[in-house]
Amino acid sequence: DVKVTQSSRYLVKRTGEKVFLECVQDMDHENMFWYRQDPGLGLRLIYFSYDVKMKEKGDIPEGYSVSREKKERFSLILESASTNQTSMYLCASSPGSGTNEKLFFGSGTQLSVL
Amino acid sequence: GQSLEQPSEVTAVEGAIVQINCTYQTSGFYGLSWYQQHDGGAPTFLSYNGLDGLEETGRFSSFLSRSDSYGYLLLQELQMKDSASYFCAASMDSNYQLIWGAGTKLIIKP
Questions:
Q1: Could you give the angle at the alpha carbon of A32 between the alpha carbons of A25 and A60, nearest 5°?
Q2: Could you please report the per-residue DSSP string of B18-38?
Q3: Would you list which residues of chain A are within 8 Å, Cβ to Cβ, of chain B?
Q4: Is the N or C terminus of chain A more exposed, i.e. has fewer CB atoms within 10 Å?
Q5: How do strand B104-109 and strand B9-13 relate by DSSP bridges?
């Protein structure tokens, strides 16, 4: 069974902390994505990567960075967490190049920044 | 700008049929996907329309009309477990991004 695994289901951090969210996929997918989901706003893309060491900004990259050193792992980094980054973070992956009609999602990390 | 519009909430009765609409305004449209998300869960893929017409997968069907920039998800024989949020997402022909609708919360009453 295909799987996207996010390291934490719930996370509580303090303002100003550096936060790492990890995501691993076991499907040998080329593309990986980080979204945040807030009530009434749907899914908003933070960053995506279409290859190892490659990354592209999404719609809301400010305050975030990413790392993709290995094909199966895509990390989201909050350099200095702020309360407005409290949200559900979803990692996803998809195979191959071109369009992405089918994404596989991890179970999400609910991050609270106090 | 690029956007997808879908109703925020739809209510239906168990055993009935419900249609969730999605209209899009995008450039370089390639196809339309649908995802289901239960409260506290991750989105899971339901269906994809790359061509105009109807795609059927069990109780769920999805339809696309490119000329009308419109699609819908049809759920038949509704069950209580179908209570969830449903998202439409447009894939583009020139990049890796998806454009997402804000989601439709489906409430099913017994």
A1: 135
A2: EEEEEEEE-SSEEEEEEEEE-
A3: 31, 40-45, 48, 50, 56, 58, 90, 98-108
A4: N
A5: parallel
